Amino acid sequence: MFGLIVIVMLFVASQPSQETFDKITVREFELVDENGTKRVTIQAYKDGEVVFRLRDEKGNIRVKLGAAEDGSGFVLLDDNDSGIQALAKKNGISISQFDKDGKKRVY
User: Which of 34, 39, 63, 89 lies 20 to 30 Å from 56, alpha-carbon distance?
Assistant: First the structure.
């Protein structure tokens, strides 16, 4: 009889949860792929800023979106760390293009 109870308990414990949550509260969210590589993060910082990052299969940031009290911004990067950046802050709006050597063009 004890063996049957153990088997039933193991069976119930091995079943995937079908539970749906209305809300999950965390300070940081991290999504990894099947290899354990960090692919997505959403993080809230103590200064009030929140940042969303998308990474490629090697873990390199390719998209970054941030928001803070004084404005917001986003960055799009290629595999050479060249990209574009757009900022909307209290002191103005800027869009810039940059390359891996640090050369920057502001529009």
Answer: 89
**Which among 69, 80, 39 is positioned nearest to 57, based on CA atoms?**
39
Nearest CA to 45 out of 69, 81, 63, 79 is that of 69
Q: What whole-number distance in Å separates Cα of residue 80 and Cα of residue 102?
A: 11
Q: Letter for the amino acid at 97?
A: Q
Residue extents of the structural domains in the chain? 25-106
Count how many Cα atoms sit within 13 Å of the Cα of residue 63 in the half-sphere of its side chain.
9
Name which CATH class applies to 25-106: alpha beta
Distance of CA 25 to the CA centre of its chain: 15
Are 81 and 75 within 8 A, CB to CB?
no
User: Nearest to residue 56, comparing CAs of 29, 69, 37?
Assistant: 37
Least confident of 17-26, 41-50, 61-70, 93-102: 17-26
pTM over 0.85: no
